Amino acid sequence: MTDTTVASDRPRPPEGDWLGTPFLRFEREGSLAIVTVDRPKSRNAMTGAMYFGVRCAVDRVNSDDSLAGLVITGTGDVFIPGGDLGPDAMVDDWGLPPGLGMDVTPFESIRNSAKPVVSAVNGLCQGGGLLIAMMSDVAVASDRSTFRAPELLRGIADTGYAQYLPAQIGIPRARDMLLTGRIVTATEAMDWGLVTRLASHDDVMVEARNVVTALIGAAPKARGSVKRIINGEYGRYDRMTMDASLAGGDEITEGWFAFKERRNPNWVPEDLRTEGRL
Description:
Strand order of the largest sheet: 1-2-3-5-7-10
CATH superfamily: 2-enoyl-CoA Hydratase, Chain A, domain 1
Distance between the termini: 40 Å
Strand content: 5-15%
Shape: globular
Mean pLDDT: 94
Structural class: alpha/beta
């Protein structure tokens, strides 16, 4: 624990080991940093401040000579379900500059981190949570975990997924995940290459610590050179199209209301609609 992890009554920006939100815990275990997403009342749904806090954690580890690696995990049976689409999305807003959009997310920071980042996927993993797991150097998954990329069901053209998933799991499987929003089990995720380590639920953090320790054993400069080449296989995603999709068009607006109202969006024909949200 650190002396900067206690939240004040008022939201305040990141400083030291305080990540700018009471829903993220930054803890030190010797040379390792552990970031825990802890917002159980909202099933760990991420606010802008939470996404930015994870990004700050990566920067914190990389800038601190006493830290050698980072593990990201969640609480209970939820890792990270993606962004908060409910009314409490701004609950811990400390004044992030407006218009940052995707710039608050940690995906590229994790992908390009000089020091190892491991995701300990302890349960439900979808949306931005799946991207965090994919961009980590290694993802360890609980045998209870599930994976999903539901963005198209919400009216969002996620070009990050469109770029990264085919490179990681192949085009046919990426099509299946993205175009249908299907739920992928832990065993399927392991077989497909979404994750590379599977552990019993109670042993996820033990395995994650073992993996990040193994990663730290590699020579830092040589490891960085190899990681740079591997990262190049993902290519670059179409940021302009992503920004346009998130700008508030008809589909994302309807997708948001459908999610909020727990119904199918209006682009689904009436005779094919199901009960509840997609």
